[in-house]
Amino acid sequence: xxxxxxxxxxxxxxxxxxxxxxxxxxxxxxxxxxxxxxxxxxxxxxxxxxxxxxxxxxxxxxxxxxxxxxxxxxxxxxxxxxxxxxxxxxxxxxxxxxxxxxxxxxxxxxxxxxxxxxxxxxxxxxxxxxxxxxxxxxxxxxxxxxxxxxxxxxx
Amino acid sequence: xxxxxxxxxxxxxxxxxxxxxxxxxxxxxxxxxxxxxxxxxxxxxxxxxxxxxxxxxxxxxxxxxxxxxxxxxxxxxxxxxxxxxxxxxxxxxxxxxxxxxxxxxxxxxxxxxxxxxxxxxxxxxxxxxxxxxxxxxxxxxxxxxxxxxxxxxxxxxxxxxxxxxxxxxxxxxxxxxxxxxxxxxxxxxxxxxxxxxxxxxxxxxxxxxxxxxxxxxxxxxxxxxxxxxxxxxxxxxxxxxxxxxxxxxxxxxxxxxxxxxxxxxxxxxxxxxxxxxxxxxxxxxxxxxxxxxxxxxxxxxxxxxxxxxxxxxxxxxxxxxxxxxxxxxxxxxxxxxxxxxxxxxxxxxxxxxxxxxxxxxxxxxxxxxxxxxxxxxxxxxxxxxxxxxxxxxxxxxxxxxxxxxxxxxxxxxxxxxxxxxxxxxxxxxxxxxxxxxxxxxxxxxxxxxxxxxxxxxxxxxxxxxxxxxxxxxxxxxxxxxxxxxxxxxxxxxxxxxxx
Lengths: 155, 499
What we know:
heterodimer, A: mainly alpha, 6 helices, B: mainly alpha, two-stranded antiparallel ribbon, 18 helices, 2 strands, 1% strand
């Protein structure tokens, strides 16, 4: 109960503080934009509009801080955490080969979500990426980045 | 008239007709599959249309939109799970009717109501869009700026989240639209030295991320949900008695849906809720609602399908999306180098009418496909998500890559997916973010042009009658619900004291 309360207040403070922190950083970045001479500025300096929008977001977030009564969501389930970890794994493997990453991600995701049939895992891990590759390569003439597997096809 | 005929001629191409027929099947499939809806389906299929000519490309996207919106009813009636949020109210009466062994009758009413609602709205689209475009033809930048701002303000009321959160999400989308080279001054903003970002954050990977990949993470939390299908003997077209009972409801809901669709950002979900409520309010047998009322199904389905045609009115005539799915279609139009707005009706009228005719055609096609293929499509809903979603992910990533053939777009899609998931988790709708991203550039350009036109005296915008009207509407959209809520809260105790 105590832990839940702590998590509630953490989420209540963290989200607005995170948004305000991000917007403040972006606002500071916008102050670093080059400025143009008055004759070329055509109504607004390049930083004016982003600063207007960021200021609006900050004001609204402060309003949200005082008015938001919504209850924070339950903690992330283990499956969601594993799925996110898989996404990070995909990003790393896709650097080596996009389709290797897709195949491994799809098969691992299916397995983590409870699929145990080998045929189904082969379908999502091998057949689906191969079919999608040939569909896009052959029909839509999309050239994928060279990697360990795609080089076998491209030569 | 000439444009309408040449648009119809463009549709006479047999290849295009076959394509529309397949897209109708695909749309019904997308609407019936768990977790997928019209917006996600259109976002995922957008990259497939890149190599096509604009007419077939946009015809496919609008076909998916119309067909998927209808198909939500199939799962709503047979497994008590709305395929799309717009069919949530169809569950209320469709499923009880199906449980009584009348699934075929419920589907028949849903198909007839959807088809009639869709056709009525497309006819309204054909009449209203050119008129709206004509009215907007003489808009100067201040009017356009005020109108776009009004479109953005309507985002506050979408979904069931807080209006403040919706506006924050929309403003965040507008902020993302400022990334890249400023069109007015050619100064780089928020690019961090990446050349890929100099043209701005691309719409399509963001759409794929926030609608497709974030949904994958949402689905990861729904693995425990078991779907059970009600047994359906055969599809039954509504009888003469059924028609007598529902024809007024269909007409009323079609009008409501078309009107709600025309309002910027408000889509089929809001339309179906209002359509359903109005059907109950006007019904002679309101006690049947929630227990299997035919009027309930008709009210909901006619309204949500008519909202599709309505939503395309501001999308094509003003370049302001009428619904979340229309926002993705708007992105599709931009990807194909088209500029929706009044000039489109004078410079590309053939294209516009070809899209109108294709929408009319699909509303007739999905009647047949949905009615006689419902049994098969209902089985599709039982595909395990352990197989479905890994395949959706593969299509999402390859689709994000295919547009510019850039890995940066893949990273953007994944980043947008994770951000979208956390936004949804904390009740920030992702729809305002995507619409903000699309309209942000237009908003900034129009403001800059207005400043030049008014000699940097921005307050002069309030002296122009039309822009003032849009500013007032914006204020009403943003603060109206708040004021109404306060008034309502104040009135309640007075009434109770009186009693």
